[in-house]
Specification:
Number of strands: 5
Radius of gyration: 18 Å
Largest sheet: 5 strands, antiparallel
Shape: globular
């Protein structure tokens, strides 16, 4: 137990000293933020399998894209009208499933959470069929997400209105 304690202490100390603005990407929004450690319950139905996750891409307070990562390492993508789409991102394994109540609820809640921002991705976990807030990120994948075509990269960029809602 003492050895596990020492390893844990060393890891936590390292995490607190890490400058995450340049760690594994380029996320300057972390610059100057005092690191903290939050310990939360492990939300997995099986220790070896992650819970399902939803990523809601919001532009100027509107949930435009919903991505659901499934337990089988596949993903499903919907547009703002809950229509299945197979474009935008490079997706290795797709699964076409119907939108469920958690996707709809996550999109509705994400609209409220994102109303003050030009862009934010809001992440949710589904644990035992219940929706849980995970995080808000302003630099998904450190800006290195690969798009399936240049056209779709531009399409995503056109969803962003930097002038704000009052100038739409």
């Amino acid at each position: 137990a003492k050895q596990l304690y020492e390893i844990t202490k060393k890891n936590i100390t390292g995490w607190l000293e890490q400058d995450y603005s340049f760690w594994n990407g380029f996320e300057l929004n972390y610059r100057g933020i005092k690191p903290k450690i939050l310990i939360e319950p492990l939300m997995r139905e099986d220790i070896d399998i992650n819970s399902e996750e939803l990523n809601i891409y919001c532009f100027n307070g509107a949930a435009k894209i919903a991505v659901k990562f499934l337990k089988n390492n596949k993903m499903c993508v919907w547009d703002e009208n809950y229509k299945l789409i197979n474009e935008i991102f490079i997706i290795k394994e797709k699964e076409e499933i119907k939108v469920d109540e958690n996707v709809i609820k996550a999109c509705e809640l994400s609209k409220e959470l994102s109303c003050e921002f030009s862009f934010v991705r809001i992440d949710w976990l589904i644990y035992k069929k219940k929706l849980y807030f995970n995080e808000m990120t302003f630099t998904p994948y450190s800006g290195f997400m690969k798009f399936d075509t240049r056209k779709n990269n531009i399409k995503l960029g056109e969803m962003l209105n930097l002038k704000g809602k009052e100038n739409e």
